[in-house]
Specification:
Number of strands: 5
Number of domains: 2
Largest sheet: 3 strands, antiparallel
Strand content: 15-25%
Radius of gyration: 37 Å
Distance between the termini: 102 Å
Number of helices: 2
Order of helices and strands: HHEEEEE
Structural class: alpha+beta
């Protein structure tokens, strides 16, 4: 009997204050929607960060690896030298350089440098080309995983 009286009182209240109850429910739903939008935005930001972290890890573990596979010097006799077996100081050396990507992802070459050093001395501890700008003989090239390229020197 108490439950029926309570239910009847609630129904009377709802009928009497119908507009106020609807307004209060609408305000509650609006507040809940705002909280839900904020939480969803934060979740989206965290998901983007997780995806970026996964991309970084994949890039770090599946890096491209470039290898110089072959250096071919053209026969100096064809260049008009007297002796075919000796390069002369100051001579322009010509040939081809083959570079291959043996890594797991594509390699974008942003800078490169190729130079022939003429010396009878041991190689120095400091690289002689350290402060030079690259001549970019392969600059701007993209090598797919397993791909290769060759350029004339």
């Amino acid at each position: 009997m108490i439950i029926l009286n309570y239910a009847a009182a609630v129904l009377d209240f709802l009928e009497k204050y119908n507009g106020a109850v609807t307004a209060a429910a609408t305000i509650f739903i609006a507040a809940f929607t705002i909280v839900l939008a904020l939480v969803t935005g934060r979740q989206a930001r965290l998901s983007r960060e997780a995806i970026d972290l996964a991309r970084s890890e994949i890039a770090a573990t599946h890096r491209p690896k470039l290898r110089v596979r072959n250096v071919v010097l053209e026969n100096p006799l064809r260049a008009g030298l007297r002796r075919w077996y000796v390069f002369e100081p100051g001579q322009c050396v010509q040939g081809h350089l083959y570079v291959g990507n043996v890594g797991d992802s594509a390699a974008t070459i942003t800078s490169s440098h190729c130079r022939v050093f003429w010396t009878k001395e041991p190689l120095p501890m400091e690289r002689p080309y350290e402060n030079e700008s690259g001549n970019d003989f392969l600059g701007g090239t993209t090598l797919a995983a397993g791909g290769s390229d060759h350029r004339k020197l």
